[in-house]
Amino acid sequence: MTADYREIHVPLTQEPLLLMARLARSGLHDQYAVYENGPEWSYAGGALATLRLGREDCRAGESGGPGELPAVEKWLAALPVRGWRVYGWAAFELGAALAGARPGGTEETEKAEDRDGSTGSEALLHLVVPAVEVRTEGDRLLLRAADPGRLERLARLVAAPDEPGAPVPPPEPAERLSLPLDDTGGYRDAVATALAELRGPGPLEKVILSRRVPVPVPLDLAATYVAGRRANTPARSFLLDLGGVRAAGFSPETVAEVTGDRRVVSRPLAGTRARTGRPDEDARLRAELLGDPKEVHEHAISVKLALEDLALVCDDTRTTEYMTVEERGTVQHLASTVVGRLREDRTPWQAFTALFPAVTSTGIPKTAAYDLIHELEEGPRGLYAGAVLTLDASGELDAALVLRSVFRQGDRCWLQAGAGIVQQSHPAREHEETCEKLRSIAHHLVPAPARPSEAAPASGG
User: Fold this and answer.
1) Which residues are within 8 A (CB) of 366 and not within 5 positions of it... i.e. 6 or more apart?
2) What's the pTM?
3) pLDDT tens digits, residue range 28-68?
4) What gap in Å lies between CA 434 and CA 406, rounded to an integer?
5) Nearest CA to 291 among 317, 273, 314?
6) Most buried of 295, 350, 351, 366 (most Cβ within 10 A)?
7) Is 253 part of the annotated catalytic residue set?
8) Which one is catalytic: 253, 257, 377, 436?
9) Helices 427-442 and 187-198 sit at what angle, rounded to 10 degrees?
């Protein structure tokens, strides 16, 4: 039997960013996701239905077609509530599985469990229909829950900004963590190896190589999210503790957007220069970016592949904006927008799998890039360069590329950033580009409060 959500509207009386962080820290739900999509913020807590899929659930595409996840469409058709919105994440390695490339695994994810209907492999995709939701609608909030008791508890929590669980104000900059960003893991050497591959006889035209930067202390992800969001200008942002993955991020671009009228949009960014905060210097770097042959070439071939991916599931594919400049936190990027009309025999989910992972986080061609990434990076990427997404019963889908993010597993935290390598690249410049991107996050990390056993003893009197 299919049920309906119970819904009420209440006034929005506080800043959405702080409200969403407070809901995440409330402890009311054992798992949650916060997602900022333009003017709309949403919080999803608990789970009415869960789907976790591993590599063996993926069907590689044939004759260059997109890979498929038939279990997703079957699960969506059987959901127990009407008017649903699905929240979830996709690991980067899902793309390799859909392409039939060799596995990379996902270090950040837990083993899938029998209770959620998967076959027990490492999860590459985790989707939930939440038990409760809070969405902003202009100056109002829409509260949704599957039963009256949950809705009542949710309404009390939303209405009580001074209750325990409200996020403390982010610390002053002097109290935040200072994190060195220099390469200690051979990133320049990996770029040099990639350049040899790119200049060889193989098909590879571009590969995105990334590096991790460990954070030496556990982080307060909710406070870091608040601090980082105030300082960044993302296309999307998110904060989640979902399916064993904990992360906060300020995504510079979307992998896929599908509207209710079946318009599909992807917004690839490729080509980077720093933003310094000094208008004259930023204008100079912007002009340099627009005129740099390496950056322009990298962007052009990325847009070409994005159009080819889109054409797998769409008609009337085209570029509506080409090589503009978008400012994203501490960097500025060359940006384009590609669009198409989803074919009648294709679903929004198939549009996502055709475009995932983003061309700007893999390489050209993607299959060859997977192999080199697997060879040269320290371990599987997991959520990094994957996606955080929502999918509505109306057919609307929105998937943010997971970059400019911080990750936590237990007490272990890290950042990760990459750069696009083409034949004209130089290892030192690509390393500097990763530093420019990492600064969007590294300056806003808030350490987690010390546990009582870790606190310094009081001095004697």
Assistant:
1) 95, 99, 305, 357, 359
2) 0.91
3) 899 999 999 989 999 999 999 999 999 999 988 776 667 88
4) 14
5) 273
6) 351
7) yes
8) 253
9) 130
